[in-house]
Known about the structure:
Helix content is 76%, strand content 0%.
Amino acid sequence: MVGLRERKKQRTRQALIEAALRLFEEKGFEETTLAEIAARAEVSTRTFFSYFVSKEDVVFYDSQSRLDLAVAALAARKPDESVTDLLLRIIDVSFDHVLVAQDLTFEDAALRARLVLTEPALQARALHLLFDSQLKLARALHEAFPERLTLVESAAAVGALIGAVKVAVIANLEQDHSLEEIIDTARRAADVALAGLRSLG
């Protein structure tokens, strides 16, 4: 059970994330200051730094937790699980986490995606995180199937799967779809990518 202190920290963190996204939409990412984010969330700038290092960190607040979840799922591979079955489970675990966590409203999630696609500083950070996370996932997949997959094959599989899912999600953001519909689209994209990976066993 989460204690009162932890719940208060979670609320403060959530307030900072929501305040930042609202300000980025109203003023622009570059024009928004840390002090303004803190003030909108009704905390001090010092408190902001207790949760985040920079404005970029606010936008990518859940990157590490999502990566940790996927790596843990790869490490927990079942003895009879195939490569594609395990990758599909990773996708399902990730989507289930999105639906359960619901850290952002659909509108805020779409806003965050648009920011990442249009702000140069965020594009650079996103690219770095994408390469770093894919490499870590590739290594984890290779370790899950050390006798079956080379690191190159693992990297290709991870790249194909994540690429298909990300592009499918981005392509649907500007359309009038619910979060559940976008996740369904992403799952279909994952199925297409995994169909081409069946040769890996």
